[in-house]
Amino acid sequence: MSTLLAVLLFLLFFVLTFVIARFLSLLLHEFAHGITALILSRDKVSIYIGSLGTPTGSFTFSIGRLAFYITRDIRLWTTSITLPHSTTITRSNQFFITLAGPIASFIIGIVFPALAILNHMHGRIITLSMFISIIALFDFVMNLLPSKNSIVLQDGSVYFNDGQQLIQLIKYNILPQDYRIGMACYFKEDFQCTISTFQTIIDKGIHNRTLYLYIISSYAYLKDFNAAFTTQEEFEKHFRLNSIEYAFIGLIKSSNGYYLEGVEDFTKAIALSPKDYQAIGNRGYTYIQLEEYDKAIEDFNVLINDNPEDAYAFANRGLAKFKTGLEDKGLKDIYTALELDNNNAYAYKNLGIYYYSKSDYTKALELFEKAHEIAPGTHLIDFHLKQTHKKLHSNESNTSVND
Asked: What's the whole-model pTM score?
């Protein structure tokens, strides 16, 4: 029993030492970035330990212009980032800010164990120092080795490791804040600015998946679909798209009336990831727009078989069924959707389509308005509301004439 206890205590000491060493290494690395940024800029600087730019669930404190966000979940103490708030940092200043972190890691890796040994500190302090040294030197190497894999922050902006940032600064004259400027434009719905900013980065030779996706999305918002499709072609020259990317682009196309092109991308997504239920559902819905109802039913059957509580699938399978003449079965599916989720906008919209087909425009309008109230962005809901209002107005006019 005493041997087991000794082993458990040793393992506990090992784990605690590793966690403390990991935290201190990250903190000192980012602190070096942060202090350098404070010296070289006049704006605030935020340091995140355990997250990529989100303060949620973090212990927060500030020292002057330097804010710290340390996540309370120690399992997440594997990532960290320093974000200067200034968007006017010069190229030379950014070089020193970026380089400060790896230099700090290298110094920590050499100095910590040396001080502990030379000062004849307690064995456990030496052990902790050795852990910090190993982790810091590992961080030094991994941060300076350029990686083209981008880090997507909480706000959607793109970051790279220190080594890749240094290459982008020296070779391409691209600053980290260029990515943040592009994202800020996107969230302000200044899509032309997003396109211009990100296309400039790509034109300098930095081909990044996230940048292409935001450019495509921006062109879609601007209704410039030829440019969006051209950008997708360029995207596919440099990358093999994954299922999420095909599904994302497919949704942009189908949502804007390019149904055949949308189905093509959804099908590619499903081929890469047969259990991509979102792509399957979106393809099924797009088949309805193409009046290929049997194919739509097949897709929604897949969703319902794997998840019998999928209200969206029942609502749209119901629409596809009564469009093929299976009226009772279609209505049963739609009412099942409402039993599963009485706030499902598509169930109300599709029930409205049914009543519209029966010329009960008052009931149809009531259902369309309910769908719009729940989710104003429901596909084609504005079209259905407009058409129903026209029908009701036309009926009122005819009644007045007959009177």
From this structure: 0.69
